[in-house]
Amino acid sequence: MKRLILMRHAEARWHLNIDDHERPLSISGIHDAKQVGLWLKKRKYIPDEILSSTSTRTRETFYSLSIECVPSFKKSLYLAEANQMKSCLQALLSDAVILLGHNPGISELAYDLLNHKEEYGHFMEFPTCTALIIDFEVDQWAEIKSNCGKLVDFITPQKF
Questions:
Q1: Higher pLDDT, 19 or 122
Q2: Domain around 155
Q3: pTM as predicted
Q4: What are the pLDDT digits (tens) for 55-86?
Q5: What is the full DSSP assignment across the chain?
Q6: Domain count of the chain?
Q7: 3, 31, 64, 157: which one has the fewest Cβ atoms less than 10 Å from its Cβ?
């Protein structure tokens, strides 16, 4: 079995004179990421590996989670499309992974991977700092495909 913790970065500040890639988290975003990190630990959703975009807001989200795991920051995940992210996942060897990125790619990947026989509510909006836990009944990440993931859990900062 493989487990994916699909996560969108926390809320970032808006600066008129700063490149989008360099936007830092807001105070609220830092707080939300800390809360999600505590939630992940409490529920024992601990990754073996973390893949993240190189943006400032995804890096700060990762560090605010306070999860003891060495991250792999990849430029290719910055504003990546769902297929790009799925390709990154399919090359992994670990059992549990956090993929930390941006919308719309994150919500598109969630929609692509989940078994659509289940009911989801309205989580596809995927607000900032949302974490979605998906399990796959596969032995290798290379085996994941569309509609094969099982929804395990889901949290948004609004639930705290």
A1: 19
A2: 2-159
A3: 0.93
A4: 999 999 999 999 999 899 999 999 999 999 99
A5: -EEEEEEEPPPB---TTS-GGGPPBPHHHHHHHHHHHHHHHHTT---SEEEEESSHHHHHHHHHHT--S-EEEEGGGTT--HHHHHHHHHT--SSEEEEEE-TTHHHHHHHHHB-TTS--TTGGG--TT-EEEEEE--SSGGG--TT-EEEEEEE-GGG-
A6: 1
A7: 31
